Amino acid sequence: MTQILLPALVLCLLATPLWAQQGPAPGPPADPLRTDWAGLARYAPLNQQLPAPQAGRARVVLLGNSITDAWPGADPAFFAGAPYELVGRGISGQTSPQMLVRFRQDVLDLRPAAVAILAGTNDVAENTGPYQPQATLNNIVSMAELARAHGVRVILCSVTPTYEFPWRPGLGPGPKIVALNAQIKAYARQQHFVYLDYHAALADERQGMKAALARDGVHPTLAGYRVMEPLLQQAVAEALKQR
Asked: In angstroms, what CA-CA distances link 209 with 25, 30, 117, 238?
């Protein structure tokens, strides 16, 4: 009986299409917007169109999340009137590992004189997984080291204050942000990078953002950006003096 079944089984397998033996037939190509975890496609066309930095006018890249992303639209006059070229490269919702992945194409390849790195808010909000303070600091350190290795002056920004994330309540971000900022500040001082303290200027008594400066407790209004702008100008001026 076994001798009869085995040849029949072999014939059945041979008659089965190869794709069925290997698994289901392949589907359509994946949507690149859904698989582009680091947002590499977001600024790729703009990066290609961006001309080389002008002689005598320093280029400064602002790398960050939604706070950086919304800034040029909130106050375009500030970006247009700066004595240096401000290039915004913020992506809403991004965490520090995502920024690190795109750091070369969205910062280094643009040949800036300086970069201001504003990262950490969405790490604390656990947008891409559980918050690990050392991992976040490591990502910021890696970006700073990459910039220094390529002759780009570094501005490390404090994480802006938040009492509660509307999209993920209950995490108690205030003290976590204060602790992360202390680490960023200590690292900046150790490495002689410019430390830009947005937190002190924006925070209220609850370690959140002042109500008059934020529309949702996280994202600055125009009034909030107007508080941040002179601080950025001062930090850029300090960074550009460094050799």
From this structure: 52, 40, 19, 26
